[in-house]
## 1
Amino acid sequence: MNTLAVVLTCVDIVVCIALIILVMSQEGNDQGMG
């Protein structure tokens, strides 16, 4: 694997985790963020 593939994979994983956390926080405590 070249460096670009590794970087893209890391970014993809981080984005997926961020989306999961965002959805969980929205569904879990709706009143929490505002």
## 2
Amino acid sequence: MYILVSENFIAGLTTAPQPEGRLYGEYLPGEDVARFWEETTRPAQALGWWRQGHEPEWPEGAGEPEEGQFLALILGQEITFYRREQGRWQPQPHEVMNLYTDFGSRQQGLFDLKLLAGKRVAIVGLGSGGSLVAAQLAKAGVGHFELFDFDRLGSGNISRHLCGLRDLGRLKVAAVKDALENTNPFVEVNTYPYDITRHLSEVEIILAGCDLVVGAADSEVAKGEINRLAVRLRKPAVYGAVYDMGYGGDIFRYQPPAGACYACFKESTRDIFQDAPRAEVLDYGKIAPQPALEMDVTIIGSLVARVVLAELLAGDPLSQLERLPANWVIWGNRPWEGWIFDEPLQSRFVEISRDPTCPVCQHDLFIQEKLGLAPDEAARQAAALLASLENKRPPEPAS
């Protein structure tokens, strides 16, 4: 028998106003493991009773103890466990843990853990890539998530998704939320099971409260809306894509206020991708999923998470994670004839410059370039045109 108990659980019993009560926890019979790490009043499995004292005596009024039940004795700040075996109370060894302290112990010294705990990240798209990014960030200690995806987990997702068979048919936002809460003991997750392009006003309000946005949607329409909102709100954004057949992928970072936005990136790389493997963000929405191994997706997802962490920790004097030297990272898992990678596991860093007439991040200059008008004048003429059309509307037919 292996018993794991948290310091918080013990503290809850030692400060309880009553001298005894039901003992709630989780028992895994196949592995003979019992875990006690939540508040005693949380409905879990009723595994026995606890009481103050040092003698293993079953509380009066609790009925006859059954085989396999647990008895926890509290004496001062200490806890002792017994289990009913062959009609007798047998002492059981246990291990005490501090879940909230231990959680970040393996990352101590890499960055300020408290800083990440206060960060809020929005992720649009929870396919194989987006779900992995969410998990990596939660494990690193990011404390708050806003998750967007309208799709459900299908059987074709399982071979490369964070979630598994037990989540089939569930909304991806709900399944990933459970996975994150099973990873990070103090994470806060909000979910939105809808297409962001149909709820832009609400999405804008949500993103306004975030520190960064991850664009993991496969739809260029959705990524275009993410870009427009990120530029308008001056929020950093990171976009990831995995190439068809898992040949590689890329990560683009928008860094406001002066950095190139996603629209600049698409315009600058239009010719580059004519002979390249096709880029898709895998398993989000309703487009046909593209073949790729989970391990190939994992590499790109991990790189996206790495770029996100470096952005969130920018300015932290303790951080050992530096920003990458360019805003576009291209990764090749294996060679592609006629393109930039001739050996496996290669990377390239490219700085994408801002498009001086970008319709998104340089809207005023775009208006001047395309229409030859100042933005105020263009807006005035547009309003006048709309008013004239309104005045020329045909009369309503008589009833």
## 3
Amino acid sequence: MFQYLMAGYLHSWLFPFFFTITTETIILWLFVRKIFHINGRDLPLTIVIAAGIFANGFTHPQVWFVFPFIFQSYTIAIVIAELFAFIAEAIFYNIFLKITIKRALIVSLSANAFSFLAGIFLHFFVNSKIF
């Protein structure tokens, strides 16, 4: 029974996982190139894409598979998990991309806020049978 439940939970995680990686990596790229004006010679596209994939590949599974089982309150789990993702990804961007901590915090907050709100929006429409 547990394996069946976990298989369903894993299946429900796949779309949000790839959606998050895609949206947050695009936002990371937009910030690096268009807002911070860091050119491709100083920070190649492959490095930016790798940073988005690795940062989210580390935090997203923990947000879905660890935090909900630590806290009894779903609201508290979400708040703590999102704070964890925001801070962990900012630290990763600061170290891996060699951008200032201020820039790393800005891009991490923006990317996480967008993907979180977009996820809520999509969840509402998918569950309301509009899509």
